[in-house]
Amino acid sequence: MTNAAAAPLPSSETLADLSEGEVLARIFPRLPGSDAQLLGPGDDAAVLRAPDGRYVVTTDMMIQGPDFRLAWSTPHDLGWKAAATNLSDVAAMGARPTALVVAIAAPPSTPIWVIEGIADGLRDGCEALAPGCGVVGGDLSASDALTLAVTAFGDLEGREPVLRSGARPGDVVALAGRLGDAGWGLSLLFRLGVDADGTPDAALAAALRERHPREIGAQLAPEPPIDRGPAAALAGATAMLDVSDGLAIDAGRLARASGVGIDFDSTTLGGQVERALGGGEDHGLLATFPAGTELPDGFRRLGVVTAAAGVVLVDGTPHTQGGWDPYRGWDGAAG
Amino acid sequence: MTNAAAAPLPSSETLADLSEGEVLARIFPRLPGSDAQLLGPGDDAAVLRAPDGRYVVTTDMMIQGPDFRLAWSTPHDLGWKAAATNLSDVAAMGARPTALVVAIAAPPSTPIWVIEGIADGLRDGCEALAPGCGVVGGDLSASDALTLAVTAFGDLEGREPVLRSGARPGDVVALAGRLGDAGWGLSLLFRLGVDADGTPDAALAAALRERHPREIGAQLAPEPPIDRGPAAALAGATAMLDVSDGLAIDAGRLARASGVGIDFDSTTLGGQVERALGGGEDHGLLATFPAGTELPDGFRRLGVVTAAAGVVLVDGTPHTQGGWDPYRGWDGAAG
């Protein structure tokens, strides 16, 4: 006897069961459209509008193993995060995200519902974080490890891009977004989302996410404040970047690019100062504004720009940075 | 005693020995600049010119195993081919390629000279095939399989894009580029570039390339006629696409998109008709032109557009298509 109340089982079809055309036919209706699209998927290339004669471009790859574990992330999370992290790089230029192209490589044994879930995550991420931004093209390939390569585009709407190099001594340092949650979420997953052998475990991770939705959510499906990028540009931000490798490291990058120092006021960094300074994958927007600027909604003051070139300070004392490096930080055996 | 005449050994340093910043410092000087670049690598995103208010975008991923074998392709080949195949998709819209962004994922044990060789191949491919086109940004990640994800951009220079859907009965069918060599080169490699166990072998492949430079070269480092894309658009091409999966399959795509048939004249397909129709990865440009058009240099007539919707014929007889599918065509065990 069937149980009419049970949720429908996801299709057991795999990529190997379907032609490339059939896979695309499953994906396309799920993808968000782009307001900038003049010609979308289906030809050799897409054509996009660039109303002010320029466009912003960034690219980022996410790979099963180094960048995510299928035991921890749902397919929807993967699509959402791939969109969110790229949208944040566009926003950090002061641009409005307009479109994505998405290349997915997956093992032939991958169930089609995994690819459909990624498409749903791309759609929901774009709709929530950057309405009007959509997927205009892509590529499907075979691989051993699930891989998402996203390239994102943005419209500066006639403004100058906000670079990392424009901060000046005396500017206010401000942030939109969260600090330390995503990094803490990852450390929770590595400590408590694994079985006794250290293997990532889906049931443990799901339970952990219920107990720590803020931190695990920030890690697996971040919600960067995309619309604050253009808002910062309009408010006169002198420099800005996406905080992806931790506040201290990224502040150091902005400081070196601008030839200035940054002095954080520890009282603004929450109760866990080192977690705020060192946690990766926050995807907040760190910006500097001329002194006296009324900060745009969503930005809060964290400190001040100093003349000490390239130095990151906390309450006037130099801060020693840790670091994330893609080739040193990854242990394939860790999951 | 050192032998002063010996070639310098490639550096034995690996990605794991270097910081991300050090790797980028090795790569950047090797990459070609883009004439369209307003802001290049080093910030959260690049900014590119779009003089006519539009831009063309395409993306493609190449993965060690399904898409290439390190025993057969040099790093220079990989960079060259990653550029060439993406440039060809831009050209197939009638656009001039302007820029690439390149994401590379590689095992930490990868020698730095492999990444440098890829960068050199990207540069030489752009300089040879699309002068003025350059690399404006990218991403470095860790992975088990060497992976290149390239997104390419183009400028329509005020023209309308040439779609797959514009062919009309009576149009001339024409091609710029080679037919069948790349597919034949791959079959040679699979038959003669492997050892007794079927494992790809570098020495055998190198010897094979000396004996069959045309076919192996077309497979490993293709030279698509990029500048013929804009030339076809200027000459009034009604439809165009990049021949990547074999002439018959891609002609079928153009025929279905346009609601027409295509009838090839077998006498124009060279001595090996099936090789010409079925070989993949040619990366020539298949275009249709109104009857009576003087074909642009580099294009040769292959047949005529008919009214029989979606049908590919050879000398008036329907042609049965083979096919390449990324999830069905790849056997991971094949190398």
Automatic annotation (TrEMBL), chains A, B:
Pfam families xrefs: AIRS (PF00586), AIRS_C (PF02769)
Binding-site positions, substrate: 67, 281, 324
Keywords: ATP-binding, Kinase, Magnesium, Metal-binding, Nucleotide-binding, Thiamine biosynthesis, Transferase
Functional description taken from the UniProt entry: Catalyzes the ATP-dependent phosphorylation of thiamine-monophosphate (TMP) to form thiamine-pyrophosphate (TPP), the active form of vitamin B1.
Record family assignment: Belongs to the thiamine-monophosphate kinase family.
Residues annotated as binding Mg(2+) 5: 245
UniProt pathway annotation: Cofactor biosynthesis; thiamine diphosphate biosynthesis; thiamine diphosphate from thiamine phosphate: step 1/1
NCBIfam families recorded: thiL
Reaction equations catalysed: thiamine phosphate + ATP = thiamine diphosphate + ADP
EC number(s) given by UniProt: 2.7.4.16
EC class name: transferase
Protein name: Thiamine-monophosphate kinase
Residues binding Mg(2+) 2, per UniProt: 60, 89
Binding site for Mg(2+) 1: 59-60, 139
Gene that encodes it: thiL
Record's miscellaneous remark: Reaction mechanism of ThiL seems to utilize a direct, inline transfer of the gamma-phosphate of ATP to TMP rather than a phosphorylated enzyme intermediate.
PurM-like C-terminal domain: residues covered: 168-267
Superkingdom of the source species: Bacteria
Annotated positions binding Mg(2+) 4: 44, 58, 89
Organism per entry: Cryobacterium mannosilyticum
